[in-house]
Structure to design on (688 residues):
């Protein structure tokens, strides 16, 4: 190996090490040391290096989390030992009964228990094998399946940032782990991602997932790793096996070892020296349940001393050394007094059940969303019906079924979606094939209200203090007629509002001022363009580098060209492209954008650096490449400035054909387009 290439390899490895360290800080410890932008810079540097020198790419590189090709299906794999389920205890008595049996069978009262949260996701087994340099590498992820056989979902699980792709030798040593081991734990979807995902699905006219567990299971079992990656799933480890056996004498030590090795282990755990202490932990956790960013459905209690496990044996197919204490479901039964209609930012009308107030899990619930007309029909709900309402995490309470019986007579009021908007009396339409009803009046005040709240919210323009109360007042007084008006508010105007002192008025002005410094992607996100969420806004900002370039492309006279160019942006498909075009072709929106520009918001950003080696060239990939997945090849071409298209035409510069290339190769030959093999593509990618 030449000196220069040794040097490059060292640089790549140093970058990888650094990125892994920061990923661990961020995704496992929730304690980042550097900003997201700095992290992105490191990743981009590595990506650029790898794009220029594909030989440097290693499978465990942080850039390779997404890379698997869409699959045909999943392969079934046998577990090293069965993945068991647990018996449940539904109250204190059942818990104590379980403990008594443990004490009896162990002939001692001196037993320590480990209490862990029962995370409501899906269980998963991760396998690690020896790697060069004394490290371990992640090689296989298997779903629980029927307990003895699961499905190989490795490509999807690789995309979870809290799953280490390698464990360094030093970490193995510190944790006392051999290079080969198996970790079992729970994959879960944080409540926030779940809410966002359902919102997106609803916009797309797809069915909502009933709970984060189903959503996580769906995301793990998709055939396209890219989709899993977008779902922000998390993995918490709770079980460690070496050579098919439990690791260490104590479960608590195993958890500590997992943490030391770099896995995410839930910090809410405790060694209890008596069942009273277990009960105390359970009660405290139930209170804490509300504040956790993910769902738990109980507490798992395990005998800490693993030597006892074998002696305790099984009841049916569950081990006696552990029990799952299940929290009561947070549901309540109440009456639907009325069905109201709310109007959202996009003009969507959402039916909401007004309930006779009912206490559920510590709070009083008097509203529950009904999502849309289809949902009301599915439930068969009438005004006056008794219903069961469920509340989970910070998800809005929802009606799960109509309750019927002697004490629960049926209601009689049939709900109809209004034909005019309840806020502005504008026209309401339900477009062909869509589930939602919408108010079509662009000036509907309800839309303005929601737009303002979205614009000012955290994660968007982040104007703290500009919540419902302030927005309502600003609108009532006619001080803001669009989001840009926020920037011409004066202190006197703010002081004229109710309950507004000098200090709060100044704070709000400071917040408004500070928002002008936020990056371009926030401004794009803040515009509230349909289907353009946080991620898409980020990709748009990176791709175009300025609002003007985005607008120029989105409003190009040549519609086909405009849509095609928009779709060059990562994750932008025909639907988002059309929405962007529609938004920027509306003169009122352009006027608003101009007003924001004059207010001094950021209209330029950092364009993601792309190479120029392949600038102006269009590639079509077909067949299976030997060393790279299609996604990888696509990314490398794009990083070098080229474009990748799905179909061969006369404009195609090159068709890259791998094994078993099909009709696209024939088409290329027919049109006389140059065909490259993988090596020739790599040569093109090399800087000259
Ligand atoms: S221990 C035999 N620990 O609950 C060991 N399970 O009903 C079984 N779960 O299938 C697993 N959090 O999906 C264990 N801290 C935890 C858990 C946990 C959630 C799930 C897991 C398992 C089910 C058992």
């Amino acid at each position: 190996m030449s000196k220069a290439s040794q040097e490059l390899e060292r640089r790549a490895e140093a970058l990888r090490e650094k990125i892994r360290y920061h990923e661990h800080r961020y995704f496992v410890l929730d304690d980042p040391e550097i900003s997201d932008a700095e992290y992105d810079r490191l990743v981009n540097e590595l990506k650029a290096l790898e794009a220029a020198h594909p030989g440097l790419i290693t499978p465990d590189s942080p850039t390779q989390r997404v890379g698997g090709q869409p699959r045909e299906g999943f392969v079934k794999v046998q577990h090293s030992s069965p993945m068991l389920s647990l018996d449940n205890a539904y109250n204190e008595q059942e818990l104590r009964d379980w403990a008594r049996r443990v004490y009896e069978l162990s002939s001692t009262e001196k037993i320590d228990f480990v209490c862990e949260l029962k995370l409501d996701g899906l269980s998963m087994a991760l396998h690690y094998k020896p790697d060069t340099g004394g490290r371990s590498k992640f090689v296989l992820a298997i779903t629980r399946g029927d307990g003895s056989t699961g499905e190989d979902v490795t490509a999807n699980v690789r995309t979870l940032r809290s799953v280490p792709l390698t464990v360094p030798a030093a970490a193995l040593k510190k944790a006392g782990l051999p290079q080969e081991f198996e970790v079992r734990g729970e994959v879960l979807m944080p409540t926030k991602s779940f809410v966002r995902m359902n919102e997106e699905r609803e916009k797309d006219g797809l069915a909502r997932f009933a709970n984060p567990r189903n959503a996580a299971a769906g995301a793990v079992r998709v055939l396209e790793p890219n989709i899993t990656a977008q779902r922000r799933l998390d993995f918490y480890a709770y079980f460690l096996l070496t050579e098919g056996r439990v690791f260490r004498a104590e479960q608590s030590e195993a958890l500590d070892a997992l943490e030391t090795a770099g896995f995410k282990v839930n910090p809410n755990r405790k060694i209890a020296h008596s069942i009273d202490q277990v009960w105390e932990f359970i009660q405290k956790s139930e209170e804490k349940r509300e504040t956790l960013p993910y769902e738990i459905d109980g507490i798992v209690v395990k005998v800490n001393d693993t030597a006892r496990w074998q002696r305790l044996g099984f009841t049916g197919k569950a081990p006696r050394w552990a029990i799952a204490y299940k929290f009561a479901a947070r549901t309540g039964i109440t009456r639907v007094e009325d069905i109201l209609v709310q109007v959202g930012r996009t003009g969507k009308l959402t039916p909401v059940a007004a309930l006779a107030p009912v206490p559920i899990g510590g709070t009083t619930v008097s509203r529950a969303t009904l999502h849309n007309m289809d949902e009301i029909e599915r439930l068969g709900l009438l005004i006056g019906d008794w219903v069961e309402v469920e509340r989970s995490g910070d998800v809005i309470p929802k009606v799960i079924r109509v309750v019927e019986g002697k004490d629960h007579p049926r209601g009689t009021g049939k709900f109809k979606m209004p034909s005019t908007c309840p806020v502005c009396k504008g026209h309401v339409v339900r477009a062909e094939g869509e589930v939602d009803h919408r108010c079509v009046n662009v000036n509907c005040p309800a839309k303005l209200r929601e737009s303002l709240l979205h614009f000012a919210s955290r994660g968007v323009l982040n104007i703290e203090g500009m919540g419902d109360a302030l927005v309502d007042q600003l609108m009532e007084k006619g001080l803001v007629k669009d989001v840009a008006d926020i920037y011409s508010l004066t202190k006197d105007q703010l002081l004229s509002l109710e309950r507004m002192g000098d200090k709060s008025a100044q704070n709000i002005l400071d917040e408004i001022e500070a928002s002008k410094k936020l990056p371009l992607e926030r401004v794009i996100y803040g515009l509230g363009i349909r289907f353009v969420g946080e991620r898409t806004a980020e990709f748009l900002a990176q791709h175009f580098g300025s609002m003007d370039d985005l607008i120029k492309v989105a409003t190009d006279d040549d519609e086909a060209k405009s849509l095609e160019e928009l779709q060059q942006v990562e994750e932008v498909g025909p639907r988002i492209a059309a929405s962007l075009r529609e938004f920027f072709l509306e003169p009122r929106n352009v006027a608003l954008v101009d007003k924001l520009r004059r207010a001094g918001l950021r209209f330029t950003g950092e364009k993601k650096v792309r190479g120029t080696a392949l600038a102006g060239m269009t590639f079509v990939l077909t067949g299976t490449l030997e060393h790279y997945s299609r996604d990888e090849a696509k990314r490398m071409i794009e990083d070098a400035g080229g474009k990748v298209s799905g179909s061969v035409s006369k404009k195609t510069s090159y068709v890259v054909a791998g094994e078993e290339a099909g009709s696209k190769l024939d088409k290329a030959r027919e049109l006389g387009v140059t065909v490259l093999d993988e090596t020739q593509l790599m040569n093109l990618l090399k800087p000259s």
About this structure: DSSP finds 25 helices and 26 strands in the chain.
